[in-house]
Design goal:
Elements (H helix, E strand, L loop, with lengths): L3 H12 L15 H24 L12
Length: about 70
Amino acid sequence: FFCYRSISLFIYFRLVPYEFGRNTLPIIKTIQQLKHEIELLEALHAVKITFTTSHTGTNTRLNPID
């Protein structure tokens, strides 16, 4: 049966790149595991920002950092 928590976990693991094959999704059980996942999300966010700023277009006169 799927409860709200299971669905949220499913959505999270679909958005974050993991490879489980046919195994069940892992459950975050400890604070250390949670901190690791937060660090991963922060790193992915930084990659997204870098990608977005580096692909703004060639006709812009703005500095990519601005």
